[in-house]
Design goal:
The protein is of the alpha/beta class and 295 residues long. The chain contains nine helices and 13 strands. Helix content is 30%, strand content 23%. It has a six-stranded mixed sheet, with helices on both faces. The protein has a five-stranded mixed beta barrel with strand order 1-2-3-5-4. The relative contact order is 0.12. The structure holds guanosine-5'-diphosphate (GDP), magnesium ion and zinc ion. The site of guanosine-5'-diphosphate (GDP) has 15 residues, from helix 5. Guanosine-5'-diphosphate (GDP) binds next to helix 5.
């Protein structure tokens, strides 16, 4: 009998495939080994059932990947949840803006999550959120520790393959554990990871969500380089709240620095664009220009 599903992890030469109802331990046909073809979590595969009771099957074919992400290697990611702590560690808005550029550049939908909201007064959290309201990018305020704000976040993760990104220590693994715990309570599953109390980020794995969809954890990182192919005049296109003004600039080569009749700067002057966002744009623009010159 044939079926299809999504690889949620590879481990010890087996691939674990979720078909919408249960998990199958799948081996590979020899032809894949000969071709040295590798499979990633997120890959959609067709498989033949070998042992219904024992949940054993063999993978027959893999469908074309829509997206492919490295470090960690995951196929068919649709959304990137960029997690930033409102404090402890201090919010790194440079990294947030770089990740927003990167994810859009790769064709992935960004989502912002300001976590550890329990540690900061509401008005200060609101101020962080306000800088990103005009972007139209969804912003969630959460506390992975106390469970606050998780309902909204879970809503947007439904039926999608999403990945958590952001610096280390911001609470990515805690968020994942909080979300997975609910799945286990709902389905009565016993998770080894929960028994151990903590996720490890060594094995790349998609975590099933209770309402459908998958979420993967990633280890933190502190540095993100902008894509080498990014051109100076295209950078503004990754600032959703600014790019709408670009066609109104007098010169179509405008980089929105100090050119006359720049509609982006006029909007900034009217308070329609967040100053911090614009200042970081200016610095990242110089970085893009420096990179262009190196090649
Ligand atoms: N106060 C508070 N602490 C949190 C929250 N989320 C995570 N933490 C703590 O922050 C630390 C880092 O969390 P972790 O999930 O490992 O962060 P990761 O490196 O991004 O995966 C741990 O000590 C957590 O208990 C939160 O929402 N509120
Ligand atoms: Mg972690
Ligand atoms: Zn301009």
């Amino acid at each position: 009998m044939n079926s299809e599903g999504v690889i949620i992890k590879g481990y010890n030469g087996f691939y674990y495939v979720w078909d919408g109802n249960k998990e199958w331990e799948c081996s590979l046909r020899g032809k894949f080994r000969k071709k040295n073809q590798t499979f990633l979590p997120g890959d959609r595969v067709r498989f033949t059932i070998l042992d219904e009771q024992g949940n054993k099957a063999v993978i027959e074919s893999v469908m074309t990947r829509q997206t492919e992400m490295t470090r960690p290697s995951i196929a068919n990611i649709q959304q990137v949840v960029i997690v930033i702590a409102v404090t402890n560690p201090q919010p790194d808005l440079w990294l947030l803006d770089r990740l927003l550029i990167m994810s859009q550049f790769q064709g992935l939908t960004p989502i912002i999550c300001f976590n550890k909201a329990d540690l900061l007064p509401d008005d200060e959290v609101k101020r962080l959120e306000a800088a990103y309201t005009a972007t139209g990018i969804p912003v969630f305020i959460t506390s992975g520790k106390q469970g606050g704000g998780l309902a909204g976040l879970k809503g947007i993760l439904k039926d999608k393959i999403s990945v958590l990104a952001g610096p280390s220590g911001v609470g990515k693994s805690s968020l994942l554990n909080a979300i997975e715990k609910e799945l286990c309570l709902k389905t009565g599953e016993i998770s080894e990871k929960l028994a151990r109390g903590k996720h490890t980020t060594r094995h790349v794995e998609l975590i099933r969500l209770a309402d459908g969809g998958f979420l993967a954890d990633t280890p933190g990182f502190s540095q993100i380089f902008l894509p080498k192919e990014l051109k100076r005049e295209d950078l503004i296109g990754f600032y959703p709240e600014m790019e709408g003004y670009r066609p109104l600039c007098k010169f179509n080569t405008c980089l929105h620095r100090d050119e006359p009749f720049c509609a982006v700067r006029e909007a900034l002057g009217k308070g329609l664009i967040d100053e911090g966002r614009y200042e970081r744009y200016r610095v990242l623009l110089e970085e893009v220009i420096r990179e262009e010159r190196r090649f």
